[in-house]
Amino acid sequence: MRGAHVLDRDGQGRGGRKLSGHRERLADRARERNTRPLARCPRSAYQLAPMKIAFIGTGVMGAPMARHLAAAGHDVTVYNRTRSKAEATGLAVAATPAAAAKGAQAVVACVGNDADLEQVTLGADGAFAAMDAGAVFIDHTTVSAHIARRLAAARALSVDAPVSGGQAGAEAGKLSIMCGGSDAALAAARPVMEAYAARIVHVGAAGAGQQTKMVNQICIAGVLQGVAEGLRFAQRSDLDLDRVLEAISGGAAQSWQMVNRWQSMAQDRFDFGFAIDWMRKDLGLALEEAKANGAVLPVTALVDQFYAEVQAMGGSRQDTSALVRRLPR
Predict the structure, then answer these.
(1) Is-contact 107 67, C-beta < 8 A?
(2) What pLDDT, on a 0 to 100 scale, did the predictor assign at position 272?
(3) Would you please indicate which residues are annotated as catalytic (active-site) residues?
(4) Of 311, 230, 244, 320, which is closest to residue 23 (Cα–Cα)?
(5) What is the model's pLDDT at position 26?
(6) Closest Cα partner for 152 from 189, 124, 125?
(7) pLDDT under 70: residue ranges of the chain
(8) Which of 279, 140, 144 is nearest to 217 (CA)?
(9) So what's the pLDDT on residue 18?
(10) ∠ CA 161-115-214, rounded to 5°
(11) How high is the pLDDT of residue 68?
């Protein structure tokens, strides 16, 4: 199945202010482009009877994904280390990952990092020991390719499936998912992921999904630095920022980050979800993987250090566009 990312804004600025006419047209075109089916397989091809599903990790991404599964008619039991977050979903809550996984046809995880993932799968009261032989494991955590391969070795029906689209994509059920694992594992996982995905791409063997997410973050980091520098240059040149956006966003410089973050960056608004702390974790994974595969990532390493500067300025929980803060107006 192929679909696409969706915009995480509704065509209005902060506080309900309408975008300028040009920016509204840009957003309309982007929405049309990003929701147009691309060789999409019919959903009915993957529909199955309701399944019993365990969902481990009900944070800002996991909670809406679990709710989409329940809305699709599945029997969903959730587990979260902080029980109150699991209870907030309104779904059945298990005391441990193992209790959630017992009897489930699919177990889905969306936790924090490698250590968290290892604990909920292979640790004491972890899901793997309780899972039925034919159950599929789907991991939406952004983690190392190493642990993805390790989990696939422990359970053949395992898919590393990091996502892109952010909190808004999770809430809308329009995530882009990049999957690593066997054909059999993906076939078992696809009907589950259909409940909250707009795009599902099988990119390769176990670990390839995580490596593809690293590519995603490498590209975002470089683009955001370019947009930040371009914005500050325009400001120092006393240019009309709306007209600059109109002039350059229709050509080769256009990007999702430019269309959706140019104005908010100019207004020092950095509350759009994906925090710098998380981005640094992801870039760290990419830089570690590059050491293993020999890739050279000079821009990524530099932007990672720029993000460290913004963290030192108190921007750890601000979104990734806060990169612009380190550049003087």
Answers:
(1) no
(2) 86
(3) 213
(4) 244
(5) 47
(6) 189
(7) 1-48
(8) 279
(9) 42
(10) 40
(11) 98
pLDDT of residue 25: 55
Distance CA 146, CA 137 (A): 16
The string of pLDDT tens digits covering residues 169-195 is 999 999 999 999 999 999 999 999 999
What is the rounded distance in angstroms from the CA atom of residue 58 to the CA atom of residue 68?
A: 12
Whose tokens are 């300025």? That residue is 313
Contact residues for 175 (Cβ-Cβ < 8 A; gap 6+): 65, 163, 164, 165, 169, 196, 197, 198, 199
Phi-psi region of 177 (alpha: psi -120 to 50; beta: other; left: phi over 0): beta
35-68: pLDDT as tens digits: 333 333 334 334 458 999 999 999 999 999 999 9
Residue 96: half-sphere exposure toward Cβ, Cα within 13 Å: 15
Reported pTM: 0.83
Phi, psi torsion values for 127, nearest 5 degrees:
-70, -35
Tell me the two tokens of residue 321: 């566009």
Predicted local confidence at residue 46, as pLDDT? 43
Structure tokens at 43: 């959903």
Asked if 186 and 202 touch (Cβ cutoff 8 Å), the reply is yes
CA dist 224 → 41, 89, 221, 284, 329 (Å): 33, 33, 5, 17, 16
- Here the tokens at position 271 are 């509350």
- CB of 263 within 8 A of CB of 241? yes
Whether 2 contacts 39, CB under 8 Å: yes
pLDDT confidence of residue 28: 55
